[in-house]
Amino acid sequence: MNVPTAYILVLAAVLFSIGVMGVLVRRNAIIVFMSIELMTNAGNLAFIAFAREFLSTAGQVFVFFTIAVAAAEVAVGLALVVAIFKSKHSIDIDQMSSLKG
Amino acid sequence: MTTDLILFAVISVLAVATALAMLFSRNAVYSTLFLVFNFLVVAVLYLLLNAAFIAMVQVTVYAGAIMVLFLFVVMLLGAEQLSGRTALRWQRPLAVIFGGALLAIIGYVFLFRPAGSASLPPVPAEFGSPAAVGSELFQQYLVPIEIASILLLVSMVGAIVLTRPEKRKAE
Prior knowledge:
heterodimer, A: mainly alpha, 3 helices, B: mainly alpha, Four Helix Bundle (Hemerythrin (Met), subunit A), 6 helices, 72% helix
């Protein structure tokens, strides 16, 4: 596919902004988590676009590591969500205010 | 060139539409399924950008394993729906304003100060194939891949410890 890299970067920026809005707007902790995944994915898309532009495998290798880190993050994060649900019986992030100063 | 642009336009519209649907779905199960669809669409885009191995990793690890884990937790907790009430009334419009401002800034930089050339260089035959990425991974990036494996092990242990049933501390 031969489209300018700038277009792909704009698509990545749109996806990233949707992820940011999801983190800021939604109150369900799992949806907030999924929005973070969407942002990670947008960053990966930019990496792949630049790897294609400069014909460098390093960008693709970096995406591989990003996916590995995202898998680790999801495992721990969802375990945290389950633990919070067990103690508070809610995953509304507005309820998680025990540490409020 | 024109067919490429049309293809790219269809893929971007699908990706943005599924991302927005993920954001606005009331039911968390639908959100998860829309995000799976979004990841599959982006995997197709990776494939078109000559990153075959990463596209397959995206489908198996992201759309497969990670999203199934999400779906599993959503259904396990039975917390598909939350009431739409928010504690802070001004949070939602402010979030939309800041998100739009971020998008405007990034879009301005990308569109009016283009990062790359207009037409891309031709791709060598082996670029992005599993053999090419794998040899790069295991020759030049051997230490990072070992660190990534340790990270996955630690996160697995952490997940098990966090979800372990509480033991009563009687003694």
